[in-house]
Design goal:
With about 325 residues, the chain is of the alpha/beta class. The protein is about 35% helix and about 10% strand. It is built from 12 helices and 8 strands. α5 runs parallel beside α6 and α9 packs parallel to α10. The protein starts with a helix and ends in a 7-residue tail after the last helix.
Length: about 325
Amino acid sequence: MAAAYLQNRTEGPRHPRPLGGDTAQGVQGESLIDLSSRVLDNRQSNTLDTRRKPAWIRAQVPGGDAYLSLRSRIEGLGLHTVCQEASCPNIGECWGRGTATIMVLGDTCTRSCGFCNVKTGRPAVTDLDEPRRVATMLSGVRLRHVVITSVDRDDLPDGGAAIWAETIERTKVSCPDMTLEALVGDFKGNHEDLQLVIDAAPDILSHNVETVPRMHAAVRPQAEYDRSIEVLRRIHDGGLTAKTSLMVGIGERDQEIITTMRDIRTRALTDILTIGQYLQPTRNHLPIDRWVTPAAFDRWKAIGLDLGFRAVQSGPLVRSSYRAEEQARAAGTTREA
């Protein structure tokens, strides 16, 4: 049945197992919420429906010389980007400006978040030459600010921390005039592994909370809300600019967003916050609960600034790395030309 379903899909299979993985996998105890009434039955794929996007959800179609040039260079060096792997709606705009978010530690994640389009499974052998290639590529593209992220590598003893540290250090040497932002996982709460990345001293160190506490069991089954708050607090305590991201429209309530924003700011002392609309990548991912209006995003931005965040990017198509240089400039981390 699964094979027949995949053959009938117009977009073709991407993952070695159902896209987004099993969102119940790894959950300890009972879920805090029940989404059983919203389970998508792939056997009835001809009856499934996707919610029509509102007028304010518009993304630029990828194309143009700058986009093609950057894509060619990235592919030529055998690198991965979260822009491609996670099907980011802003890839046309960002690559057209000559900016991209590089993804290290391969393209296969060991976790199975219900919202993410990066493929899940058992990663291949770790590429130890990746840090050098990333630094080489970035030295030739003349960016003012770059974001580097990664898949979660729970299969590695250090969660990939050593690769992370080497990538940051090599990039800082190759690109001394460029500010560098690193977006990392939680390293399963291992403080020594996180500290290795902190000691490499990127200009901004990000870790995404993604959703409100009540939704974590369904949205991030192998993560813990309080653990993510602790990661952000340790980034701040390490003397770095801390950043996180929330997505909305996946089942949370407005007041929960505000409460979570306050928690991130007061408990974790985080500096930069981004908020964006959840977009369901495929029929196998968690469904969209609602379309959040631009007015709501504007309100959350104002609240965030009042709470003391140094920079807040809030809008329907905002992602953690979207216009990251503007966030870095607002937070005072970019270098003067």
